[in-house]
Design goal:
four-stranded mixed sheet; Rossmann fold; 39% helix; alpha/beta; Dihydrodipicolinate Reductase, domain 2; three-stranded parallel sheet
């Protein structure tokens, strides 16, 4: 569901007193405004809601928060490695002459969003014409898009999304502290796991809206909380 349609869908569900879990991709003030609006609805209709329960915001937000707690006053650098963007991939595949396609997005050092489109072409197809068709589609208009013809996309498809979270402490007085978290994964699968964990917490939550950072870790394990505590603590 598009992010701009989540609020309306959430409102309709909460009006019936049904708890919700969403993975809306919002950040900063937009996320806090959304959470506040959902909180008012959820409280009014006597139902709990967990918002932003995905990868980012969600699990990555919790990782960032914990690393900041361990290194007060430090600096966090987050490097996102390319991951598949489904809508753009589907569009690229629909272009005449394209046998297969894969679209990824990366954030440049200056904050610009760049799209890399990898295409496997039918025999004899003009790569320049395909590139023009992709860039002309409304989905890509106004975006920095690079098109790369490849002979085979199979190996590229296996890479998935990745992230490197680097947190460096600023104070030498208490010793050097440097944490690095690196992962590579299928974002859709990880998001589903986070949403399931949030759903397990719903029975223990009072009416209102919560982010993943608001929920005790034990609640995310649900009925497996005791087992998890014995295994991980």
């Amino acid at each position: 569901m598009p992010t701009n349609a989540v609020m309306e869908a959430a409102s309709q569900i909460l009006q019936h007193g049904i708890p919700i879990v969403d993975c809306a991709i919002l950040h900063g003030e937009s996320f806090h405004a959304y959470k506040e609006a959902i909180h008012k609805l959820a409280f009014h209709h006597n139902a709990p809601a967990v918002v932003g329960a995905g990868w980012d915001p969600g699990a990555l937000s919790v990782f960032r928060s914990w690393l900041a707690l361990l290194t007060p006053g430090g600096v966090t650098e987050t490097t996102h490695r390319p991951g598949i963007t489904l809508r753009h991939t589907v569009m690229a595949k629909s272009v005449v002459g394209v046998k297969d396609a894969l679209c990824t997005e990366v954030r440049a050092a200056d904050g610009r969003l760049q799209r890399y489109v990898y295409v496997e072409l039918e025999k004899g197809v003009n790569a320049d014409l395909v590139a023009q068709a992709i860039r002309a589609d409304p989905l890509f208009l106004g975006e920095e898009t690079e098109i790369f013809p490849l002979e085979n996309l199979a190996s590229l498809e296996q890479e998935g999304r990745g992230v490197v979270l680097d947190r460096r402490g600023s104070s030498q007085r208490l010793g050097r502290r440097h944490f690095v978290l690196e992962g590579r994964f299928d974002e859709a699968v990880v998001t589903a796991e986070v949403m399931l964990a949030a759903a397990r917490a719903l029975p223990d939550l009072d009416p209102g809206a919560y982010s993943l950072a608001d929920i005790p870790l034990s609640a995310l394990w649900g009925e497996q909380a005791d087992k998890a505590e014995r295994e991980w603590l």
